[in-house]
Design a protein that fits this description.
The chain has a four-stranded mixed β-sheet. Helices cover about 45% and strands about 10% of the residues. The chain has helices at about 5-10, 35-45, 45-60, 75-90, 115-130, 135-155, 165-175, 185-200, 200-205, 210-220, 250-255, 285-295, 335-350, 355-360, 365-390, 400-410, and strands spanning about 65-70, 100-105, 130-135, 230-235, 270-280, 310-315, 325-330. It has about 400 residues and is α/β, with parallel strands linked by helices. The termini are far apart. The longest helix is centred in the C-terminal third of the chain and has 26 residues, at about 365-390. Helix 12 links the parallel strand 5 and strand 6.
């Protein structure tokens, strides 16, 4: 919404990607207030936003889904972002797939009200999204640090060509100059790689292409449990595409490790409901199956969906890499991220700190806070219940046999 931010984008290297006629702006943002973004700006710009979306939708030959990217800690991303999500649900009910890449704040976030904003937005994501791909600022920063260390240690050697004249090649050949790189460029590039890999099958040919409809259909067994944890290998930024190549078997090990998740979670400590593996590059299906069979014994899957794998293969590799692997895991370990948000929310809400800023906005009710945190607690309990079923010993027929023996003795 901020005119200054949009002006910077339109003057930057990616200016040709965006149609300036589709941009909606205001003088300022939402001031780190979910209520301003959702209740105030949402109502004020509803018709303008809807017109922009309709123009884009009508230009599509085959509208498959809506893909939203927004933050959770600020006011505009969490508030207006989730308002647009609900608007799409109401105005385009025939387009069932609404994918959201939500950027969760870190524990050391400098926005004091981010726990409020995140919990209020989380309820909207749970009710209106078809699938949510959560990423976290702190995990992205750790990944960028890892990329920097690997680049420094391994040098800039890479045998894969990068097209001359592209924005990537410009950054690649000018890595010695830090003037044009902004603090969050590398973090944004990691998220961009996630989106590029997730949508590659819709843009390129492959022997086993899958579309976003299949991802939602196969990975979401229950409507509310639609949070898919992303893991990527190799890890690289578009500003530093040169990296040491990884063998395919190493990449399969990487995407299931904690260090390669885009959110601070360890899938191996949680329970898998389902998992998708999206591969790019010249890879044989037999290699994918072999690695799944190799990795599978080290992962905990729910007993009723132990074969809950979805695989996709796009023959076009990412820029500067021989191949890449993206995993999307529906895993119960996401509940730890939500539980942490609830704890931080309760620290503020128990003292009603900063609450008056939200209540000053027309349409905001105290029940919005209470219902949102209860929504978060309820699906934390649902994830916990699934884990308890896995670790609970299987029921046997021994009690029933004892009853039968007792009846025989009486007779």
């Amino acid at each position: 919404m901020e005119e200054g931010v949009l002006s910077t984008i339109l003057k930057g290297p990616l200016r040709e990607i965006f149609d300036h006629k589709q941009l909606v702006s205001d003088v300022s943002g939402s001031g780190n207030n979910w209520a301003v973004g959702h209740k105030l700006y949402g109502a004020r710009y509803r018709d303008e936003i809807l017109d922009s979306v309709r123009r884009a939708a009508e230009a599509c030959d085959c509208l498959q889904c809506f893909l939203l990217v927004h933050s959770m800690g600020g006011g505009t991303g969490s508030g207006l972002g989730t308002f647009v999500l609900r608007l799409l649900q109401e105005e385009f009910p025939e387009v069932h797939n609404r994918f959201v890449t939500a950027v969760f704040p870190s524990a050391a976030d400098d926005v004091v009200t981010s726990p409020y904003n995140s919990i209020l937005a989380l309820r909207q994501l749970t009710e209106c999204a078809e699938a949510v791909i959560p990423v976290e600022n702190q995990a992205l920063q750790e990944i960028c640090d890892k990329i920097s260390r690997a680049t420094t240690a391994g040098g800039e050697k890479n045998s894969n060509p990068i097209k001359d004249g592209s924005a990537i090649s410009d950054n690649h050949h000018n890595t010695g100059s830090k003037r044009s790189e902004k603090p969050f460029d590398r973090m944004n590039n990691v998220v961009a790689n996630l989106l590029l890999n997730m949508t590659s099958s819709a843009r390129f040919e492959g022997s086993l292409n899958i579309d976003l409809n299949e991802i939602a259909m196969n990975l979401v067994p229950f409507p509310r449990m639609h949070y898919l944890i992303p893991g990527m290998a190799p890890l690289y930024s578009l500003s530093v595409v040169a990296s040491q190549p990884r063998r395919l078997d190493e990449m399969f090990n990487d995407v299931f490790s904690r260090r390669h998740q885009l959110i601070r979670a360890d899938p191996k400590q949680g329970l898998y409901l389902s998992c998708a593996l999206l591969v790019r590059g010249k890879v044989q299906l037999s290699d994918i199956r072999r690695n799944i069979y190799r990795i599978k014994p080290s992962l905990k899957f729910v007993h009723w969906n132990s074969e809950g794998w979805k695989t996709g293969l796009c023959s076009v590799p990412p820029t500067g890499q021989p191949y890449s692997l993206l995993s999307l895991a529906n895993n119960t370990c996401i509940k730890d991220t939500f539980a942490d948000l609830v704890v931080r929310f309760n620290r503020l809400y128990s003292r009603k700190a900063h609450l008056h800023h939200f209540m000053a906005i027309d349409g905001m009710e105290i029940s919005d806070f209470e219902e949102s945190v209860e929504c978060a607690k309820s699906f934390i309990s649902e994830y916990t219940a699934l884990e308890s079923q896995y670790f609970q010993p299987a029921c046997t027929s021994i009690p029933r046999l004892r009853v039968a023996e007792g009846n025989m003795m009486l007779s």
